[in-house]
Design a protein that fits this description.
CATH superfamily: Thiamin diphosphate (ThDP)-binding fold, Pyr/PP domains
Order of helices and strands: HHEHHHEHEHEHEH
Helix content: 25-40%
Number of strands: 5
Shape: globular
Length: 276
């Protein structure tokens, strides 16, 4: 896809997420919007090797997401790609419908989310198995930056560096906000690239909302000889001005007035009436 097409996909995903959260009265819009552009690039720009007609294809790349509360963006993408029927997408937040975390009953989902700190270890195991079986598939693990405080993540980092798991890619959604706290650059994340390199990882930083930068960094790591950690600098609530960098929007639900304002920002004043 051209850059403008990816940007349009991302806009449509954000709008779909907004409408689902407004309709159900629940969801995590802030952290979903911070990683929306990354997810769109992975699934629409040819980064992931994936067969949408056969989501269990053995040689597919494995994409795993630790911050499962960002599920609505994936649900929207999977529906657009034909993995989920529209009718099932519309069950989000209903009893017996799609929930606020991912599970393996959903085509395209590799593991059940909910407890943080496990995704990189699971992806490392997949990458090790691929290396032992001499398969070319890659394992990608998307994590929230607060998830990096989990000790199990660092155990996986040590493990992957030791085994030179060159088919493993970690992606940090660096939006600098957890549920209630700021995660600044002068504490845990100080000298973070150097920390990663000390464990025999390659590490790159980029703007997680710039499709040219996203595509460039994934192209540069194509022939990596070590595990790679990508730091995607993002904005929580990206795309809606009054939500950006707001703690409230970790799991806040827009009022009717706020939803209308958000629609206007996403689709333009003259198109709001045609959104639904």
């Amino acid at each position: 896809m051209e850059i403008r097409d990816l940007e349009e996909k991302a806009r449509r995903v954000r709008l779909s997420v907004l409408e689902s959260i407004v309709a159900s009265g629940k969801g995590h819009i802030g952290g979903t919007y911070s990683c929306t552009d990354l997810l769109v690039a992975l699934y629409y720009a040819g980064i992931l090797r994936f067969n949408f007609r056969d989501p269990r294809w053995p040689d597919r790349d494995r994409f795993l997401i630790g911050k499962g509360h960002a599920c609505l963006a994936l649900y929207s993408i999977f529906t657009d790609l034909g993995l989920l029927p529209d009718a099932r997408f519309d069950t989000y937040g209903q009893d017996g419908g799609l929930g606020g975390q991912l599970d393996t009953s959903i085509p395209g989902v590799e593991y059940n989310t909910g407890s943080y700190g496990h995704v990189l270890g699971i992806a490392a195991g997949i990458a090790l198995a691929a290396k032992m079986d001499q398969k070319s598939l890659r394992a990608y693990a998307l994590m929230g930056d607060a998830e990096m405080y989990e000790g199990s993540v660092w155990e996986a980092i040590v493990f992957a560096g030791h085994h030179k798991l060159d088919r493993l890619v970690g992606i940090i959604d660096r939006n600098r906000l957890s549920t209630t706290d700021m995660l600044d650059d002068d504490s845990f994340f100080k000298d973070f690239k150097e920390k990663m390199r000390s464990f025999d990882w390659d590490c790159h930083e980029f703007n997680g909302h710039s499709f040219p930068e996203i595509l460039d960094v994934f192209d540069r790591i194509r022939n990596a000889l070590r595990p790679v950690m990508l730091i995607a600098h993002t904005v929580k609530g990206k795309g809606i001005s009054f939500m950006e960098n707001g703690i409230k929007w970790h799991h806040g639900v827009p009022t009717a007035t706020e939803a209308e304002r958000a629609r206007r920002e996403l689709v333009g004043k003259d198109q709001v009436a045609h959104v639904r």
